[in-house]
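Intended use. Records such as the Integral membrane protein entry shown here are meant for training and evaluating sequence-to-structure methods. They are not intended to support clinical decisions.
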Amino acid sequence: MSRHPAPGSAEAWEPALELLVHGVGGATPQGMLGDPRTVRVAGDDTAGLYRRTVDADAELHPGDDRDAPVPEAYTWCNLTSGNGSRAMWLLLMPFMVANLAHWMRPPTARGGLNRTYDVLVRLIALTLTLLLVAAVCEVSMDLVGWQCAGSPSCVRGKYWLGFAAAHRGGWWSEPGRRLALAALVPGALTGLLWWLSHRTWYAYESQRPATDNRPGAGGPALALPGFWYGRRLVARLRSAHTAAGALTVATALLVPALRRDHGALGATGWALGGLIAVLAAAAVTETCRAGRSETEPDDATDHRTARLLLCGGPAVLAAVAVHACWHRPGWVSAGRLPADATFTALTLVQGALIAALAVTAALMHHEAGDPSPRIPSQSAEPAAAAPHFGGHAGQAVLHGLGGPAVALLACALGGVLTGGVSQRIADWLDRGATPGQDGGPLWGPPALLTWQASIIPILLVVLVGVIAGAAWRLWRERLAVGEEMAGLYPGEARQPARTRQIAGAISRAGLTDSVASLVALVCGVSFLLGAGAVVGAWTGGAGPGEAAEGAPGPLPDVARAAQSLGSWLVGAGVVALLALGRRAYRDASARRTIGILWDVGTFWPRAAHPFAPPCYAERAVPDLTWRMATWTARTGGRIILSGHSQGSVLAAAAVWQLDPATRRRVALLTYGCPLERLYGRWFPAYFGPPQLCALHRELSAWRNLWRRTDPIGGPVRVGEGTVVDRGPLKDPVAYGRTPRHPLPEPVLGHSGFPCEPVFAAERAALLRRLPAAESPAPPGPTPPGLPVQGSSGRSSG
């Protein structure tokens, strides 16, 4: 509590709360509160509010001698981490990256451009679903069910496939029946994706907003009451993508039979083909029409078209499976299934959509103009000198083309994984021979997939070059920063090892601002290699090895080596990805390493791809908003909302959701904060300078602490003459041993902000700037959500 009256005093009782929100990598309540004895006062095992045991019923004891707010920790780490099975989400990374592209739009007031951008991103996301399902069809139906089961030499030794071998003459030996059986794999995958999306929405994203907060015209989008509640959109997109996946499997199953059928059987097949075309057009139309309704929580029931697609897609697939199982005398499997045109068409469609998205984003960026507003000074404090991280404040990355670049990366990642996995499984089935060559039993995957697998070694060479360039730049910057040590720590005797340690931390932290250049380079290389793969598939045969046959010198051997190496690298990469994911959910240090991209990617709602990993903010933001709104209403108290790293982003999002009266009773303390450095540049329509300036105006107080050694956080520059930042804080606090610091001080970087001497001072200053309660609540019964002593509140310490 901030003030406590003496007995009999008429002074109002003003409770105060410090609501702590941790960042990426998670934290324990004991560590956040600095006490091994904690009790959960609200929430569940997934996300909850914790207090020290001695503070569990602090509102009942206003006379206690306190000189600081009551600390309360909100832990949300179990929303993004858990058991090792969640590592499987990493295999859906292209979906998550495509969903990010939706939120990277440049800010613009033109509704037509916004709608066009939305539609293009949703269509790109749909092509990724088609690519995944088509790749699984290629592996299970073409390579296994059609080619391998139809070749006696390939089936030899594979007891799990012997019952369907063509030369054994069993019921499953007919090509159509083998394909129908193999279609169970992509069909089951489609059903699994639907189930995961449906289940995780109820587990993560079904929390209603706290208030009907309606900002004025032109207000921040994150303040809209329906921003964190998009039930109907996810349901509509889920139905469309599920239907598209089922129809892809049905097409892969129907086309080989149509090439064989005549008469009534052929007429039935063409009728099924027409039904597939109608439903496919409906799925594309539903994807284009589906849009977010953020002005209010979208509780409407599913659209009739969505329900039709959800039932119609699997029903047509079942009918096609029955049709494929019909007896066709004399039908034998030879060559490969006609899938080359499918993958080539998907690649060309993705390229056209990304080009259109880039044009749209460029127009939006041009329309936005200068994103940096100038607002009157609201503080008499001098502005702290701060280096510009990655350009001017509010400057969007890649001149507004961040969204198209990320969408291109999603497609490139999907294409490389598709080609590499297909080639790896073909090599495994072909017993080490090169599929389609060396007299092997298999023809191998379509030519485009083989070419895509072959470019993986080239991508690795480019990445090695990029890493070498970054290391050289890091070395130069470390030397330059090392020359600043005399000014940062005057009067200290120089120690080369200590100087290298501090300068290295500062220069490594600056590498974060080079991510945009890295993305641009990788996108350019990916586009050129992807275009080369399409041209090679059209003109160069089944793969680089075949295209190089007859060439002079070692070129044929190099081409075959690239083809084989690419398939092995993807196989190893998938295993490594799963191993990394399992380790990240068990090891805190590994979780912090990959947590930046993962927590940024899953922070945003699933607006473009319904099969992306679930959005934890649709649970965390309502949790924080409900807590602040109900606590201030029942106690009349004041709140310091203290957010670290990603917790500062959640804190800002929660403050935007508060009504104005509650927001005036909340002060924001952020540290290690990426609001401007990362979110403001990559998501300018939602965290750009106008939005951060509006947030600062609507809050009673906001303070941000930052260090130069922090690779994630940075300053929050909200306008000329306006002070939010305190920093850069000296890190480490002492260069060498001193009487006050007799032991070497560590370089803290992104952690340890509450240990800073200025932390408590800034927290106290924020509390003093909050307005006094207009109608303070007297001590009384325990507010709802707080356990009384001896209640069922469970201790976690």
